[in-house]
Write a structure and sequence with these properties.
Layout lengths: L8 H5 L5 H34 L7 H23 L4 H9 L3 E13 L7 E7 L2 E5 L1 H6 L5 E6 L6 E6 L6 H12 L2 E4 L3 E5 L4 E6 L2 E9 L4 E6 L2 E10 L2 E5 L4 E6 L2
Antiparallel strand pairs: 1-2, 1-4, 2-3, 4-5, 6-7, 6-13, 7-8, 8-9, 9-10, 10-11, 11-12, 12-13
Helix pairs in contact: 2-3
Length: 256
């Protein structure tokens, strides 16, 4: 399924949702509400079990705490359903109006602070940043000028199209670095390889790591290596790559 349907662009350019797009977001709301209902029922059953089926040796204070927490979460889920689930998305669907932003695109990825270290994906267009699903991040172009259509309150990405590159310094800087940095680079302490599909591998003092890279709309280099995100000023002049970090400048030479 294409997350950027070309057949919807005519309506999206008028800042309108198509019937198919509206129905898709409505199904998403119903699915989230259904999951919340099931979770509330499970937590309520668990609270009842903890309150009435726990063994006598179980400390009363812990029994009360568990029941209270479980019922509190269940009530919040039920209230979420009653108030319309994702209220921002609900309001967006009622209004049915889109907004758009045009500019150079870049992709970002961060590790969420959870047990599974789930990755969170972002698209940056101009000065706007959007949290997106992995499928949307994968389908979006890595470089170039785009126009992105989105719902204003929930900031849900609806569609995207490429547009002609604007003759502005930031777009030129992004495109220039995106093209020039591809290849392998090294100095006496480290080496790095940037591939055209947005992957980077680096070896520093014998320690090898891998991740993703992109260039944002202001021409800055973003590198996600070993769950650590770095943003730096970078430039390529001839066979020399200079990366300006917080406290130093790293210079690497292109490998033959």
């Amino acid at each position: 399924m294409n997350p950027f349907p070309p057949e919807a662009l005519e309506s999206n350019r008028r800042r309108e949702l198509t019937v198919t797009q509206r129905e898709g977001f409505a199904r998403l709301l119903r699915l989230r509400n259904r999951r919340a209902t099931i979770m509330a029922a499970v937590l309520s059953a668990g609270a009842i079990g903890a309150g009435f089926l726990a063994p006598p040796s179980f400390a009363p204070v812990w029994r009360i705490a568990i029941v209270g927490v479980a019922l509190g979460i269940a009530v919040s889920l039920i209230l979420r359903i009653i108030t319309g689930g994702d209220r921002a998305l609900s309001r967006d669907l009622r209004r049915g109006r889109l907004e758009a932003v045009t500019g150079p695109i870049s992709k970002e990825q961060e590790s969420a602070m959870d047990v599974d270290s789930t990755s969170v994906y972002f698209l940056r267009v101009g000065n706007e940043r959007f949290t997106v699903a992995p499928m949307i991040s994968e389908a979006a172009p890595r470089t170039g000028q785009v126009r992105l259509y989105y719902l204003p309150e929930s900031r849900r990405v609806v569609n995207l199209e490429k547009v002609a590159d604007a003759a502005n310094p930031m777009a030129i800087a992004q495109r220039s670095l995106q093209e020039a940095i591809v290849g392998s680079w090294r100095n006496n302490f480290a080496n790095a390889t940037f591939t055209s599909d947005g992957r980077v591998t680096a070896t520093v003092m014998g320690h090898r790591s891998a991740g993703q890279w992109s260039v944002d709309g202001e021409g800055r280099l973003h590198a996600q290596i070993a769950d650590r995100a770095e943003v730096a000023e970078a430039s390529v002049r001839g066979d020399e790559l200079r990366i300006k970090l917080t406290d130093r400048v790293v210079t690497l030479i292109r490998e033959a």
